[in-house]
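Ticket #4471: complex job returned nothing on first submit. Input attached below:
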Amino acid sequence: MRSRVPFARGLFLAGLTVLGALGGAGCDLFATREPPPVEEGTEGIWQTPTTPRIVVENLERALEAPSFGDYQRALTEDFVFRPDDADVVRIGLERPGETPYENWDREVERQTAEAISQSADSVALTLELFEETPIAAARLIKYRYDLTLFSAGTGTTFEGEAWFQIRQEPNGDWLIFDWEDVASSNTQSWGLLKGRSRPTSPGGGSLGPESLPGPAAPMTEADR
Amino acid sequence: MSRAVRMLLALAAVVFGPEAAVSEEAGTAGSAGAAADSAVVARTLVSTDGAIAAFEEAVPGEGIKGFWWEYDAAADLARLLDENRREERLEPIVDPFGFELAIPDTILALRDSVSAVADSILAERIDIAVSFDPKFTSTYDERKDQYVLKNEFTTSYPVVTNGTLTVDFGNSNEYNESTGKVKDGRRVSSTFTYLFQEHLASTFSVNWNEDRQERERVVDADTDGLTVSGQLRETRAVGLLGDMEAGAGLSVNRQRYTTSTTDGESGNLTPDWRLKLTRAYTGGTATMDYTGSGGVSSREERRTLPTGVAGVDSTIVDESDDTNINNTVNLGGNYKFEDGTELRLQSSYNREQVQYLSQADSLRGQQESRVRDSRTGTLSLTTKPVEGLEVRANADYSLNDNDYRLTKTLSSNTSAKSADTDISYEPWEGGRWTFKMERSAERRDYQTPTSGDVSKQQGSVDFKQKITTNVDFDAAYFVSLDRFEFDDPLANVDRDVRTQRGTFTVRYNPAKAVTSAITMQVRKTEFVNIHPVQAANNNTDHGYTINPMYTWRLGAASLSGDVSVDARYKVQDFQDDANTLVRRLTARQKWQQALSSRLSTEVQYRWEFSDQGSYNRSELDGRRRYGRSREIIRSTVEAKLRYDVGKGFGVRVEYRTDEDDSYSVSGDDRELQTELPRRQLLYAADYRRDLLRHVHVDVNFSQTLKNGEGVTDVERNYYTIIASIVYQPFQKEDPDKDKKGKKTEGEGS
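Support reply: We reran it on our side without changes. The output follows.
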């Protein structure tokens, strides 16, 4: 026969949990590393995104710097990237059996941006704003882009349109939660470059036997 | 007997189990509302779509945004596997006044998982029809500048005893006014299914499809393909091994494709085979599933390449003969102990070889070969060792190796492992501790300088305590650390991101109709770049929030509101003259009124004041001083009216006005910089009904009118129309049709 743990033992166990959590928080498990001294003359590139246009400027500077921590900071946790349908067909021919555009989240976006940056000696990005409109509780901002990768003195250019949906997070920052790439018929797009550059992409089929998901763990105040 | 020994015996029971009794609970995992736990709380159902249900909270604050959510995975799976119901538009989840609620992301994620399970079941299912049942469906979807029209005809006919012919025609047309893109698609498929014996079935299919994309009359992509395939499948019981399903098939495919630079043709011949064993035993089920395929294909392709001379291109013709092989093994099992402890184990192995003509300009004409090796493993445990203590734990492992023979830069080897645990403990009446811990580590080996290690640690502790019948509080602490360590520190920037958050909430519910709460939160996020140049970007974000709120139910009305005071300052660790401070005050009030059983209204007002500026140290006394430079004032008023006319028809009207003013501030001077007033009017109608017994009409229509600063032509006046008409002349009446989606009382745990 099970019975409720006595109050004193319960209090002891509860306290142990707190100490364990705090101890974990205070020990090396959650400790950051010590940065080196800053090189003379360098400045930070990140500006607090108090308006939608500032976060796009942050993204642009982060890609060119490059600074991929800041690049990822410009995106929300539920960020998605949507390629042009024509690029999906082309990538299907270039990488058969793979689905590079599937499950494209913030982490994949950052990894791919790093891979693109590493494939060239330098990157130059030009964004030209041509439309900004409020949508529900967010903003849709459309840019024409010109992305050039320079290697061994030559440059390869990718052109098209980037449509960003940007919303204000509870902490006040405006961040990008949706990025749609619009290609043009006679040039290669940034979305096509992303599809080619994604380091590891999911396979064509699912792995694992079919089974219904178990019940989700209850949300707590810490999760909100 | 120790817990560890019992678990080992459960795993051994896969082979040496005493009997093949089917566990009735094996298929219902995931149905949050169907668990027969001892603690059952009665909650009042507010709204349901048949699987997702929203209930009134039994205890204020226990749910999400004022409602308790449940998801019935088994019911949703049943709907998705029913061909007459899987495409139907679900009823929206609404609040007690009929206004639509946003479904939480955690519930939507569960629905996505069930959809994936349904898709995999449908792909394998063989149906034998007993009558002729044609179905015509036409749908029209218009959203702002995107227009989609689809038509479909599908039918099954029992041509012979135990034999069914299924035919499916479909076409779709899409047009986007802003991009000028046009997409057209057509498909025809025909499948003959024959049951030789009860356990031996065969299918023969012919499928044709064509898809074309154009942009301002220039072809972006054009593909068409023909596939002929056949399959034989047998199921039988095989003694101790359980139930067996074995199959073999052959498919032949021919495809033609055209893009802006390439056109070509490919053909392939692919035999495939499958063996699946399912062993049920007391307390669980074990499954082994092996699929394999091995085929040959050929491709001929013409590519247009620029020569460097204006207006002059060259055409290259390439051919290849390829061999593709795929083998996959999935193992899975679950076991439920007598005390309710559940254990799940899944693992898979996949090896795939794909060969194709390389599309890289420098490798044209050469055959690329990609070999992928993947392994995954997952272990899940749920247990309640003593009353009041609940433990969930998961561990995952994956290994992926991708090897490209020509494009070496895409080759990679990645491994990832993760573990997480949730412990909930109720030490005394009204108290509850929840402790969560998660760790993950990924090793990435690429052929580029981005190789390295990525790790994440996350932990939280949450404590709820009921003080009196009207008062309770909740205290929580959360910490996470993301770490990036690259093999090449010169080409990359190692970095750490640490987030800490402490939240304290007190709820006071003086009466059943009145709830109130105040929440205080302190946040700190540190961005640490381990690089002499990038370290200049290092900064720490501090945030403080106080947020009181209330809800007051007055019969057929509801009043709610909250005020939020938020201050954030960002300190640049190595640039003290670039710190910033943002302060914000927000007030929201909402009034909802049910004017009658069919008519209800909602009015909401939101006002926000924020200012921002520098937060640097003064040279005089070294203390940080706030230098205001910008001020923003926003306000929104939103009014909604909805009327349920009856017989499947409802209408609503919504009006919204926004003001967004921005000022530059210098000392005592304040100058208006931008003013963005906007107005929006929306009227909508929703109609769904069965006409003439066999015709089902479903229309959701709205028109939105906007004016103000920054409103584009597309946004100024647009329609949102989702309409479908289904004609099924020989459809049989569904005896449970009137009961779908209706419940009077709900249960939750």
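Helices of chain A lie at 7-26, 52-64, 68-73, 85-94, 106-118, 190-197. Closing as resolved unless it happens again.
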